[in-house]
Specification:
CATH class of the largest domain: Alpha Beta
Strand order of the largest sheet: 2-1-3-4
InterPro entries: Asp/Glu/hydantoin_racemase, Hydantoin_racemase-like, Iso_Racemase_Enz_sf
Protein name: Hydantoin racemase
EC number: 5.1.99.5
Radius of gyration: 18 Å
Distance between the termini: 27 Å
Helix content: 40-55%
Catalytic activity: D-5-isobutylhydantoin = L-5-isobutylhydantoin; a D-5-monosubstituted hydantoin = a L-5-monosubstituted hydantoin; D-5-benzylhydantoin = L-5-benzylhydantoin
Family: Belongs to the HyuE racemase family.
Length: 247
């Protein structure tokens, strides 16, 4: 089984962090392939960044098709481009937020997602509600720019831990979800410190991708995720024109 991990931002160190987390939980027969977007923002913080990251994400999914992959994971907790990717691809596509909150729902009645900036908190809160967990989850921002998670001297880990402690005390959280792919390497340590389940979206998405492939299941191509209709795309988008026949 081959699972493609696509980082929709252009920071390669974040890709490697996600790939390491994926390989740590992947089954022995699963190959993890990591890809970094070649166009777009260096980090994704809010709607504008997310919109401009989608073409690079789709280009990676397209350009990796000849080598083949059985499923793909979008390594951004905003689930950047998830709907478009599911429409484009013929294999299961997993997003970190959806995978993480579903997993947390198996483990706790109430949980808190701790993310980076306030603008991301609002976006993720909307996703959590969309995924049916609005009554069970709270989303908190720890005031950390994403790239600070790459800098050990930034104080980001202290801010994250402080917000987790507030979630446990004030929200009555029974589990914590790490709301950024850049936090993926912290899950095990934080779980040991706080004694509650700490869910990392990368790990959750990889295991769910393995399950879907093993079950022989993929995204429905009837209705909203039907393959794009063939039509010309103009200007800079010409290379994204659908090439599959309709139907």
């Amino acid at each position: 089984m081959r699972i493609l991990i696509v980082n929709p931002n252009t920071t390669a160190s974040m890709t490697e962090k996600a790939a390491t987390a994926a390989r740590a939980v992947a089954a022995s027969g699963t190959e993890i392939i990591a890809a970094t977007s070649r166009m777009g923002p260096v980090s994704i913080e809010g709607h504008y960044d997310g919109a401009l990251a989608i073409p690079g994400l789709l280009a990676e999914l397209r350009d990796r098709q000849p080598a083949g992959y059985d499923a793909a994971v979008i390594a951004c907790f905003d689930d950047t481009g998830l709907e478009a990717a599911r429409t484009f691809a013929d294999v299961p596509i997993l997003g970190l937020c959806e995978s993480a909150v579903v997993t947390a729902g198996f483990l706790a009645q109430r949980f808190t997602v701790v993310t980076t900036l306030e603008r991301s908190r609002v976006l993720i809160d909307n996703l959590v509600r969309r995924y049916g967990m609005g009554d069970r989850a709270k989303v908190r921002a720890s005031d950390i720019p994403v790239l600070e998670l790459e800098d050990p001297a930034s104080g980001a880990i202290g801010k994250l831990r402080a917000e987790i402690e507030r979630a446990l005390l004030e929200d009555g959280a029974e589990a914590i979800v790490l709301g950024c792919a850049g936090m993926t390497d912290l899950a095990r340590e934080l779980q040991e410190i706080y004694g509650v389940p700490v869910v990392d979206g990368v790990a959750a998405a990889v295991k769910q991708a393995e399950a879907l492939v093993s079950l022989g299941l993929s995204t429905s191509k009837r209705g909203s995720y039907a393959s794009p209709l063939p039509k010309p795309f103009t200007g800079a988008m010409n290379g994204f024109s659908p090439i599959r026949a309709a139907g």
